[in-house]
């Protein structure tokens, strides 16, 4: 189960990078910086563990309770549920380095619901180029939920994913099909409802 409730001290500025369809679309899948205010206390919501071209990594999903911000969110709109699970590398120099993001749209709110689209994105240097993306509308990523429980304010998601992510030199550039990496991993995290 998710490791929520665990408080971790951080000596760096939070300035969380939030990537996903639940944010205002600026980049592939959208990029939004929350507040940028200093936050020494972050709440770990869960983890993502993945292999990228055979290299193992671990990322943490986080919340900044004082700002009401989280990097693992969901929004239910009619019959459609959008989920964004973004992990931050606890060993990175800064919060925006080596960010791994999963995006899923599904019909309904159950673990076995039909998935309309899925995407995986890797931002080695945050907003700096280049970065890696899967084709969220194509067959570039697959996400399977083993557990999904969404409440009015909070939820929990656990499952696995695979993706082929390809390099983009800039926001306006096309993904390079000759510069791709294979990603496979698992996630287990608490979620926060994304409010307007």
The profile of the biggest β sheet is: 7 strands, mixed, barrel
| Number of β-strand runs | 14
Q: Report the C-alpha radius of gyration, rounded.
A: 15 Å
Q: Whole-number average pLDDT?
A: 80
Shape: globular
Describe the structure in brief:
With 196 residues, this protein is mainly β. The protein has one domain (6-193).
Task: Describe the structure in your own words.
With 196 residues, the chain is an all-beta fold. The chain has one domain (6-193). Helix content is 0%, strand content 58%. The chain has no helices and 14 strands. It is globular. The two termini are 28 Å apart.
Main traits of this protein?
196 residues; mainly beta; 7-stranded mixed beta barrel; two-stranded antiparallel ribbon; 0% helix; globular; disordered N terminus
Which SSEs are present, and which pair or pack?
Layout: E1 6-9, E2 17-19, E3 31-33, E4 41-52, E5 55-64, E6 69-70, E7 72-77, E8 80-88, E9 99-107, E10 115-123, E11 131-133, E12 141-150, E13 154-168, E14 176-193
Parallel strand pairs: 7-14
Antiparallel strand pairs: 1-4, 2-3, 4-5, 4-14, 5-6, 7-8, 8-9, 9-10, 10-11, 11-13, 12-13, 13-14
